[in-house]
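This week, work through this protein record:
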Amino acid sequence: MSIPFKAKTYLPVLVILAIGLLSACSNPTPPVTPPSAKPSESPAVSPIPDESSNAPDRVDVVYFQRKNPCHCMAVVGDYIQTTVFLYFPEETTSGKLTLNMIVSDDKANADMVRKYKAGLFQLFITEVRGKSEKTYPVDEIWELTGDSDKLKEFVKTAIEKSLKGET
């Protein structure tokens, strides 16, 4: 049986592309330090909360990722960190907003993985009111991984809504 010329030509190209993709996803990324830059626009001043507000006492942003994520997955965690540090500095300083980057494949974090029923890579937002917690998985981020600006804007909007109690 003879293999067509096109198949002979394209097969090596496909093999090289597959190897490149696998190599890119197997190289760990170095840890990220919080950015020191300020956002280009000044943050909006939030109105004085009124007592009838549904705003939570605190919002926890919880991102699960493997210990040594490939570059493709590490950038998602970097975008989440960048968004929190750039757009919510007052909220993080005051404790109104927390960011937890959890290594999902570390046995020391097994209780947190069980609590959130988290996979290896997953984002959650938890609204805390007194002793009550309401947790939302934010799975839509995976549809936006090819566009960093859209992903950051989506995460920013999701956090803003949770801080206002609009979820």
User: Anything to note?
Assistant: The radius of gyration is 20 Å.
